[in-house]
Amino acid sequence: MPMAVRYFLYYEDVDLCQRARAAGWRVLVSPAQAWHTGGGTVPGNGYTYYTVRNRLWFARIHGRPRQVALVTAWLLLAVLPRVAVSELVRRRGIVRVHCGLRGVVDGLARIPDIDQTLPGEPRASRWSTWTREARSVPRPRPAQDRPIGPSDPAGGVDRREKAAGTGELTRPG
To answer: What is the rounded distance in angstroms from the CA atom of residue 83 to the CA atom of residue 85?
Structure first.
């Protein structure tokens, strides 16, 4: 049973557990732990958008209409106002609230198939300046800068070798 690609970030693990339980599997929690150094996967604006949107998608896929209505009301009447007050007190503006509202709109719109993402991911970058997010989202490198190795069957010059000016083709290590 694969993880749902549709979520892009957040809730894909919860969805997998719910689908596994519905298929008759037991879901156990591992005592293993992991930490992010320097913060989470994405900062506030993206986090707000994806948790709001994906929470609504999860409720729509696995819940009943009444549950979807309650989740939507809770997001609009409790979560987003709390985010607005927090952001205004910190004098950050309302960009994060805007991302949350966009999350509600997209969360109530069409849900993509399990193996597809919505076009234009990461979507929250459309409505805010993702300063730290730009480092969190992998960007393809030009072909001449790709390292040699199993992940690059076409070959190329290792960045370190190119920077050193040797031009020798060696495996990165």
So the answer is: 6
